[in-house]
Amino acid sequence: MSGSGDAVDRAGGRGSSSTAPGGLGASGPGSALGRFIGYVVRRPGLAFGLAIVIVLAVGAVLAPVLAPFPGDAGNDTNLLAALQPPGGLHPLGTDLAGRDIWSRVLFGVRISVGVSVVVIVASLFVGVPVGLFAGAVGGKLDDLLMRIVDIFLAFPSLLLALAIAATLGPSMEHAAIAIVVSWWPWYARLMRGEAAAIRGRAYVEAALLLGIPRWRVALRHILPNAIGPIIVQASLDLGGVILTFAALSFLGLGAQDPTPEWGLMVEQGRTLTSTQPWVALYPGAAIMIAALAFTLLGEGLRERLDPKGLARP
């Protein structure tokens, strides 16, 4: 019996790789990389988004080297240099405390984008197992889990995050927790639909009839074939999470001064837009560019990994 089960596992594994979204299972890693590069080059939007994401990653890693005043991303202040216009030692100008905006925007990549990535990963770790379990098991447990998910989905994500962040109190950690709570149900719902559809395929039913544990079938045969739309949705959601985290900080519920978070920096320059617009302009532009880059990246990956358009728009 175990030999038959291993045979079905191997067959299912071959089926998984050959039917994986986007057809990524052919030849070797070199040819796969070449096809991916060609795929990116043929899509200017994806190429632009990927290039910006790479620049953001490099900027986050090299922020201490690229920033002319690294201390300005922390507690350093220089009131004598307050509100200087862009130019000279301060290419993007300075803020009310005399801190270099370019340095703070660079370090802000680590906060705004870094926290958003952590939020997406945490949401996946909660939502994907719930959806996979519900879709693979089915029955009353599936109904119960999905009704719980529906309760969360009944509220707009931003409003739910605002309510939770206001309840927990203003801090970057509380804002991240609030966004995770409002975001994971989307992944649970998407994964459940995929898992339920794959559960009815012949190789999955054969594996179950041979006595292979349901958890092994779910991890070995269902998850690999259902993960494509999840990856697409996560990449699309990064832009939305960046905007949501910036909104919470702008409203005083997220990062607190002197943290160089882009939404907080926009709020600090909100009253200066008519006289010193650079204080809010450049952090706001960083938010827009980062959100646009991840959206373009997600849209480019959608055609490759989610040809059926299962990820929510």
Provide a descriptive summary of the structure in words.
This protein has one domain: MetI-like (MetI-like fold, Orthogonal Bundle), CATH 1.10.3720. 72% of the residues lie in helices and 0% in strands. It has twelve helices and no strands. The chain is elongated. The model is unreliable at 1-27 (pLDDT under 50).
What is the assembly state of the chains in this entry? single chain
Classify the helix fraction into a percent range: over 70%
Distance between the termini: 45 Å
Say which CATH homologous superfamily is assigned: MetI-like
Please tell me the total number of domains: 1
Summarize the entry for a quick read:
The chain is mainly alpha-helical and 313 residues long.
Keywords:
313 residues, 12 helices, MetI-like fold, single chain, mainly alpha, 0% strand
